Amino acid sequence: MASNGAGGLPPIDLDRIRNDSDGSVTGMAKGLFNQVIDGNPYFAAGGGLMILGTSLAMLRKGVISTSRLAYHQLIVDLEIPSKDKSYLWFLQWMSRYPQRSSRHLSVETNFLQHNNGSVSTQMNFVPGVGNHLIRYKGAFMLIRRERSGQIANFSNGTPFETVKLTTLYRDRHLFQELLMEAKDMAVKAQTGKTVIFTSWANEWRPFGQPKAKRNLKSVILDNGLKESILEDVKDFLKNGQWYHDRGIPYRRGYLLYGPPGSGKTSFIQALAGELDYNICIMNLADPNLTDDRLNYLMNNLPERSLMLLEDIDAAFVKRSKNDEGYVNGVTFSGLLNALDGVASSEEIITFMTTNHPEKLDPAVMRPGRIDYKAYVGNATEYQIRQMFLRFYPEETELCEQFVEKAVKLDIPVSTAQLQGLFVFNKHSPENAVLMVESLRYPNHVF
Ligand SMILES: Nc1ncnc2c1ncn2[C@@H]1O[C@H](COP(=O)(O)OP(=O)(O)OP(=O)(O)O)[C@@H](O)[C@H]1O
């Protein structure tokens, strides 16, 4: 019998080793090892703990892998970044959705213009940053709104955000249904309205809230002019395939020219309303607009939009060179290229206005860039009559008196001037007739 000398450890029994082993060196080593393990309380306890720890670690790993697998198999996520169109639709939808549990809300205040012109304030409580739970068509969905440190909109410092929707894999089709519902809700909110877009860097952004549509009947142009332009636009919109088959860029340019206050812009707004289109206003005099950006924006209009280039003659005057000697802004040839368009299946309808068509370069006027020109002038006898009757529908007799007097003035009178006189006398057509002489003074403020 020999002791291993370690305090508390049992002695090693050499006879047992000899008896247990087959006499070989390996057999002896095995016997020794068995004895150390068998009789050693430290090894016994440590081994147990080791086995327990290993088993727990393996179990944990197993649970994690299984839950990961289950997550991937059973759960599905949808990420909507704030730069995507559906982002705002979704937040609006959530603000109206009744079956939700949200403890973090944020407010969005909008001014709404109604069809009668009045404006009211609307506050929407949209889901704030954090987690929200909703039940949609029987399925639970976890909504997580997250904000990153990156700035998405430098004009107002809006940070880049995402909304993540999580649900069971078997309910994934509900994402599509939910987003379509949100889109329909947004489209419905815009029904009867015209959205005005302006360019911001490389994208079009809505400018203010959608405006109540302007009724085409409220714009009085010379006899038949409105109908003629409307018919031309409608005909163009019907013929996409025709352009496509011939490889011609599917675009059409309209130029409305004439004195100030004759209704050019009002007509374009009313036409957009009639067609159920929105308007993209491009400011060609913007010093930050480059040829590339103009081209890109022209070819990437929001769907169902008319492009409006106002005062096109003024866009290339008063250009000053910057410190490096370069002229800022879009170049004339850049404008021509953008007007030429590309062979795309999306239509581009461009309306241009000017008070000075004589200042326009003939290169702009060529067909393909301007396909339809219309003079929108001062009020004709027809327009004076129509304007009067629009403000005072019953007063046919007074109307004739007014027309006779106005024509006798024998001076150019703009439709904006007529509107000013009628608005001032909104309750008294008689007074309007008496005040005809004031039309001699175009800058008269009533
Ligand atoms: N033909 C018209 N029919 C109805 N309203 C008109 C007409 N012309 C002008 N107005 C009224 O006058 C105002 C100015 O009109 P608008 O801005 O459309 O004129 P414009 O021809 O575009 O002027 P500018 O050339 O100065 O841009 C608007 O409030 C509009 O309602």
TrEMBL record:
UniProt GO BP: mitochondrial respiratory chain complex III assembly
Keywords per UniProt: ATP-binding, Hydrolase, Membrane, Mitochondrion, Mitochondrion inner membrane, Nucleotide-binding, Transmembrane, Transmembrane helix
AAA+ ATPase domain ranges (all copies): 250-380
SUPFAM superfamilies assigned to the protein according to its UniProt record, in alphabetical order: P-loop containing nucleoside triphosphate hydrolases
GO cellular component terms given for this protein: mitochondrial inner membrane
UniProt topology in membrane: Single-pass membrane protein
InterPro entries named in the record: AAA+_ATPase (IPR003593), AAA_lid_BCS1 (IPR057495), ATPase_AAA_core (IPR003959), ATPase_AAA_CS (IPR003960), BCS1_N (IPR014851), Mitochondrial_chaperone_BCS1 (IPR050747), P-loop_NTPase (IPR027417)
Location of this chain's protein in the cell: Mitochondrion inner membrane
Domain BCS1 N-terminal intervals: 50-219
Reactions mediated catalytically: ATP + H2O = ADP + phosphate + H(+)
Similarity section: Belongs to the AAA ATPase family. BCS1 subfamily.
Protein name: WGS project CCBQ000000000 data, contig 00106
Organism of provenance: Kluyveromyces dobzhanskii CBS 2104
Taxonomic lineage of the native organism: Eukaryota, Fungi, Dikarya, Ascomycota, Saccharomycotina
